[in-house]
Amino acid sequence: MLIAQLPLRRPLFAVLLLALALLGPAAFLSPVAHAVDSVRWEQTNLAGLGYLPSAEIDGVDGPRTHAALKAFQYDNGLDEDGTYGARSDLALHRQVRAVQARAKVAADGLYGSGTGAAVKNWQGAHGLGADGVAGPATMSGMGVPRTVWLTAQGMFAAHGWSVSAQFSCLKNLWNGESDWKVYATNPSSGAYGIPQAPPGSKMATAGSDWQSDPATQISWGLTYISGRYSTPCGAWSAWQSRSPHWY
Q1: How many helices (H) and strands (E) does the chain have?
Q2: Most-buried pick from 199, 231, 237, 246 (CB within 10 A)?
């Protein structure tokens, strides 16, 4: 009986062996090894964007890595807890892909040696210090907004607004609404995101990624302000005049 069943099981066993061969050595790594590899890629991406010195890429999830991640989280509208969860992973890969697209290298979201070399070439061609790190000056030169505030400022011209005249009003307005946090949620009204759209699904008109992409949320919010209040300062004045505050 057992002997008769063996031929039927061999194909499944062969498929399993083939799958393990395709996966390579990674298939046999322990959970600890996977964790170290994950931290190392987190550190590599943070270093590539100038948040962490490259000497700190060691696979150890220590205080300096936490501090670098907190700085990245602050810039990108995330809770600054220093914990590398799904939201931080998504935002970090998004920023790396944006840099990779401008550097004309495969946009896989991982800031490896190929990306560093491509960024170095881009820097050299544009008169910047060629260190292969996409810090603030490089991202600015590439036209890649590094922070949620720069993302908003980059959209002002499309509405005919001056950054110098209107941005402080917008910053105050959205500080009061959401503290510029992408995942901010009002449990009573259902308002969501940086502009606190009630409900958040309204922002789907600006993009299907409205739940997680600050650029999509900001685009919707600025269009709303333009249509209802003409300018951010108009919206800020209305917000201040109401109790409880809303716009």
Answers
A1: 10, 0
A2: 231
| Residues across the chain | 247
Q: How far apart are CA 32 and CA 35, in angstroms?
A: 5
Residue 20 predicted with pLDDT over 90: no
Whether 101 contacts 142, CB under 8 Å: no
d(Cα 220, Cα 214) in Å, to the nearest integer?
10
Q: Please give the model's pTM, rounded to 2 decimal places.
A: 0.85
Nearest to 161 by CA among 247, 53, 236, 94: 236
Phi then psi for 216, rounded to 5 degrees?
Answer: -65, -45
Evaluate if residue 17 carries a pLDDT over 70: no
Q: What is the DSSP string of 183-219?
A: T-B-TTT--BTTTTBSSGGGGGGT-TTTTT-HHHHHH
Cα→Cα distances 69→23, 45, 155, 175, Å: 30, 10, 26, 21
Q: Which residue has the tokens 């040696």?
A: 113
3-state secondary structure 96-146: HHHHHHHHCCCCCCCCCHHHHHHHHHHHHHCCCCCCCCCCHHHHHHHCCCC
Question: What are the tens digits of pLDDT across the range 150-170?
Answer: 999 999 999 999 999 999 999
Phi, psi of 53, rounded to the nearest 5 degrees: -60, 145
> Distance between the two ends of the chain, CA-based, in angstroms?
76
